[in-house]
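Re: your question from the hallway

Yes, I did run it. Sequences:
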Amino acid sequence: MELTPDAHVVFTAFRIPINATIFNTWIVMAVLTVVSMIVTWRLRPDAPPTRWRTALEVIVQGIEKQINEITRRPTGRLIYFVGTLFLFIAVSNLLLVVPGFEPPTASLSTTVALAFSVFIAVPIFGIARQGIRTYLKRYIEPSFVMLPFNIIGEFSRALALAVRLYGNIMSGAVIAVILLSVAPFFFPVVMDMLALLTGLIQAYIFAVLATVYIAATTEGDGKMTSTKEE
Amino acid sequence: MSIDWVTIAAQLANFLILVWLLKRFLYRPILDGIDAREAEISQRVAEAKAATEKAHSVEAEHRSELEKLHAQKSEFLEAARTKAAEELEKLEAETQGLIEVDRANWQAEMTKMRADYAADLKAAGAGAILSLTRKVLNDLANAELEDYIVAHLEGKLPELGQELQASSGTSEKAVVLTRFKLSEKSRTRFTKSFHKLVAGVPLKFETDGDQSLGVILQLGGARIGWTIESYIDGLEGMLEERLATQTIHRKGGS
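Structure:
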């Protein structure tokens, strides 16, 4: 039983093997980009919005509203990062219903990459908002002794994010495989429906946690704050 | 479970590319569109608010104008009422004056008519009295009465002496006209009295049935006599003169 799509090489380009994780990620990227391009093609403010445009507006405004509620300030560029996280994970998980499609989020490499991106984004947003001195000062708060613990906290947070997403998606796939062997015609349908729900919830949780981490590092007092865990 | 670092790097790159793609094709157009629409809605709301305020201002202005017009209307109405009342009073006064004039004219007319009627009545009464007198005297006329009249004229002859003498001139005869034939005694006495005044002129007595009761003496161009007719004519003249005098006095008094 294969637990990760990383091992499944779809094709090789320039002697580089392209596995299913990367290939399916491209599919998800293509779907998101093409749909966005089609909906926002020749967008005019004075024209009445179409159904698709309204749906996208609802999604984008929903993401913006969630970020605003967490950060309690204007979203700025945060929506590009957090919104893309949410949409990528959500669409990847929703495409689970497509037969033969392996969600890229079921790969630990993908979740690690996403967690790593959050790990990188946190100091970038923090420094952009507070300046490098104020941001680095956080690691020696409340005293210099806390420096290693704070650094470990940053890494563990990224690791927790990666493992949480991977575990949820992979566990769903594993459970589906196990149940498929027990009751091949009934359980997969139920599990797929459950996977759709958990996939959306995971996308939401991942995005919210990323927002919380970034918001915690960009708050005005410059202190490390505890974050709400799942 | 294994971690493929190449895949991680690729996924990281893929994710960053996806961030850029979605920013380029999703977030920016959608957010810009929302912002533009909100701006347009805000502008329309502001325009609507401005239009509403303008409408309120115009409404207030119109209301003020309306109140002013109402006030002017009241003033005009009051002025018109006052003028109409004055005009009515004036017309009433004029009408009253005209009525007074008409009444005075009518009263004068009535007074005149009454006076004329009274005058006519008096004249008619006098005429009736005269007619009656004339009828009575004519009915009572006889030779004896005429003798009395001759005697009366005889008594007045001395007063007419000079006039008779002047009239005798070249006359050759004098004529005494009566209705009835005079008695011999009356003829003699009158002849004697006549010849005392006018000597040498023969006197002749004649009768005329159509003549009024009385005596007429014709001597040359002179005609002297006393008849009932002439007497009543004199009385009638006196009455007319008297009535005319009274009418003039009454008109002068009214």
